[in-house]
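Appendix C: a fully annotated inverse folding record. The material below is reproduced so that readers can follow the format used throughout the book. The structure is listed first as tokens, followed by the designed sequence.
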């Protein structure tokens, strides 16, 4: 019952949140002024509501790096091409301006579904390129479909020039990305693929296998219920993180762009969570404690289980 009331409050903009354990009252609607984030651009919104709970320079377009791959995934899914089709791994012909190293062997083959999974989960740049190159009409048609999809979703401050996010010309505002994340959440396959912890891809011609992990450590934390995730990084974009997480009252969209340091987006996610749960974003020391708890939860989840 409490969970239902909490979610109803989010959707109507009237939020009542429980205070820390042991208190006997409820926290009033969180004040955005109490939330201080390190990310330059940010937005927080209930998944099913257009009314944001928090925004920080949310209407300023910014490079989004590999967050791009959520749009790539939607275009692949919309194409209806078979997930079990084997696609050739080829050398990029678009001369990306950034390092696009890949462990996949040129000339081998992998299934479209596996390439999509590691595009989302591990941000594999060459996999995203191969997916786009095998789209009906080729790479140019794929990029056109990405921009058309953005227009359909009302993303007016967004532009895509490649499917991997290696170009800083791939830009969007945080408010636009709330729309994109909400749309991607509507694809069960994207939710499942983007939140997997590990995946082994089997290649053929030659036959070999590669293991991949998720670039967002929070998917492995027992303290978080992450339901969709994508990270990104370029020098021009900083550290980026978009995700949908249930913090006790239903799915919530978080968009964090242009952070310094690999830990900063995770720290900001923890601040958002504390703000929603207590009304306060917490001090630097509290944010560090939250990060340490998440790190321990991840390490515990990854520890090998003993058998008797």
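Designed amino acids, in order:
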């Amino acid at each position: 019952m409490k969970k239902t009331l909490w979610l109803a409050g989010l959707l109507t903009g009237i939020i009542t949140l429980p205070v820390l354990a042991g208190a006997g009252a409820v926290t009033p609607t969180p004040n955005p002024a109490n939330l201080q984030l390190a990310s330059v651009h940010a937005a927080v919104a209930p998944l099913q509501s257009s009314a944001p709970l928090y925004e920080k320079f949310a209407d300023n377009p910014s490079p989004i790096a590999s967050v791009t791959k959520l749009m790539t995934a939607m275009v692949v899914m919309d194409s209806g091409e078979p997930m079990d089709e084997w696609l050739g791994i080829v050398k990029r012909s678009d001369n990306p301006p950034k390092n696009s190293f890949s462990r996949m062997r040129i000339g081998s083959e992998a299934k479209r579904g596996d390439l999509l999974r590691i595009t989302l989960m591990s941000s594999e740049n060459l996999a995203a390129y191969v997916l786009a190159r095998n789209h009906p009409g080729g790479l140019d048609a794929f990029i056109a479909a990405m921009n058309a999809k953005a227009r359909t979703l009302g993303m007016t401050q967004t532009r895509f020039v490649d499917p991997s996010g290696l170009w800083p010309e791939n830009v969007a505002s945080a408010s636009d990305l709330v729309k994109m994340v909400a749309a991607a959440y509507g694809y069960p396959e994207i939710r499942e693929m983007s939140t997997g912890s590990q995946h082994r891809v089997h290649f053929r011609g030659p036959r070999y296998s590669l293991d991949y992990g998720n670039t967002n450590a929070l998917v492995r934390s027992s303290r978080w219920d992450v339901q969709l995730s994508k990270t990104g990084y370029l020098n021009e974009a900083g550290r980026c993180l978009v995700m949908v997480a249930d913090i006790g009252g239903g799915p919530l969209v978080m968009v964090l762009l242009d952070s310094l340091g690999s830990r900063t987006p995770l720290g900001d996610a923890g601040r958002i969570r504390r703000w929603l749960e207590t009304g306060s974003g917490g001090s630097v020391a509290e944010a560090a404690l939250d990060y340490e708890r998440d790190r321990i939860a991840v390490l515990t989840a990854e520890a090998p289980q003993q058998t008797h």
